[in-house]
């Protein structure tokens, strides 16, 4: 089966340039100039990866709306924002929507192809991972790798996809330190700053503490990263 890349870009020249370079590397490309045409296309066929501009003509946040719709259709679809908007607020919004990357224009076409290839490789690895045992227990924590749901002491914890990936990474080897670089890779969002990782950890801790005020399993290793301490329960 061909690998399908969807490009949602209102500028015809940029849309054609991205399409041509991706096709030259063997990808099958679907292009859309606006949100309605993209919505119709996604309803017919989900791509293997989506490249979204944020501002689509007069639709100032059309790419964000598309991202949320795609997330409802597939929680693990690689989504890259490719946009001229470079504010921290937009970047934070993209992370909350669990986009895998945020690239600002102008972009090197060679870099774009390399990033698409890398994220598709990660996606393939996730899909081909062994699924014989989908529920993992670490003390009082249970993770279901198929549904990406987490339970703590029998209660469901409402995590985003990125937060789930971080918890799964921390609990894979309890007591072992996961460095900032390792956790950055886990987010599938390209280069992620330490403060962003700290923000994710803070939100995760708060969600666990809403269920259990004494929750202290995620330990800070100052200057290095974080680890999951299994404890006695």
* Rg over alpha carbons: 19 Å
Poorly predicted regions are: none
Which word captures the global form?
elongated
Number of beta-strand segments: 12
The profile of the biggest β sheet is: 5 strands, parallel
Instruction: Report the sheet-strand fraction.
Output: 15-25%
Salient structural properties:
elongated, 233 residues, 43% helix, alpha/beta
Architecture overview:
The protein is an alpha/beta fold and 233 residues long. It has 2 domains: 125 residues, Rossmann fold, CATH 3.40.50; 94 residues, Arc Repressor Mutant, subunit A, CATH 1.10.10. The protein is 43% helix and 21% strand. The chain contains 8 helices and 12 strands. A 5-stranded parallel beta sheet has the order 2-1-3-4-5, with helices on both faces. Strand 1, helix 1 and strand 2 form a beta-alpha-beta unit. Helix 1 crosses helix 5 and helix 2 runs parallel beside helix 3. The longest helix is centred in the middle third of the chain and has 20 residues. The chain is elongated, with a radius of gyration of 19 Å. The mean pLDDT is 90.
Could you give a short description of this structure?
With 233 residues, the chain is α/β, with parallel strands linked by helices.
